[in-house]
Amino acid sequence: KAGVTQTPRYLIKTRGQQVTLSCSPISGHRSVSWYQQTPGQGLQFLFEYFSETQRNKGNFPGRFSGRQFSNSRSEMNVSTLELGDSALYLCASSFETGRANTEAFFGQGTRLTVV
Amino acid sequence: QQQVKQSPQSLIVQKGGISIINCAYENTAFDYFPWYQQFPGKGPALLIAIRPDVSEKKEGRFTISFNKSAKQFSLHIMDSQPGDSATYFCAASMGRDDKIIFGKGTRLHILP
After folding, report:
1. Is-contact A38 A87, C-beta < 8 A?
2. % of chain A with per-residue pLDDT over 70
């Protein structure tokens, strides 16, 4: 069974640009969550999607957005990039939301560097 | 109230020793407490998890101890091995919420 796939693995962008990251969940998983990981702040929740609807949102500015497609694949977009957006962006999928605390499986992440 | 506080930030343990990582939380609505293990270049992977109706859960060399009244839980790694060297995150979530609140992580190094 294939795991969570995130593309690309590495990205270098310039301040002010925008970026789109992609996540393909494990087959059959309908919930996809996104996290930002930095050395100083650890893992911080960005948002969670289920059946193409955003169910939860963390405390990030509106420059961070996402969406989920009918096949459960998800994309995350960051507009007007800032140096502080440099981080590892992780996607996690789980079987379904609405059931208490199912295990979340993480991808390897996309390492974004903003210069 | 949404925070999970984790300590220590880093830990060095001799091979064969016991590694202990502690976490504390404030929100009593949390009802699921997983621990994740992350190796360099990889995403976090679920190691072991516990619910507050249980005071201890053991899986192999890994044990979670849970103290509901103190709102604390800890991970014990018995007979620590160099292959256990990784970053460990405690976490918490509540009810049917798939949002996971993570501690800031503990970088564990096991000396050979």
Report:
1. yes
2. 93
Find, among A23, A43, A21, the residue nearest to A32 by Cα: A23
- At residue A98, does pLDDT exceed 80? no
Identify the pLDDT of residue B59: 95
Task: Tell me which residue of B94, B79, B86 sits closest to B2, measured CA to CA.
Answer: B94
CB contacts under 8 A, A 79-108 vs B, are 90, 92, 94, 97-108
A69's tokens: 């497609």
Residue of B nearest to A47 (CA): B99
Query: Contacts of residue B49 in chain A, CB cutoff 8 Å?
Result: 101, 103
Residue A113: both structure tokens together: 């560097």
Q: DSSP for B16-84, please give it.
A: TS-EEEEEEE--TT--BEEEEEE-TTS--EEEEEE-TT-SEEEETTEEEEEETTTTEEEEEESS--GGG
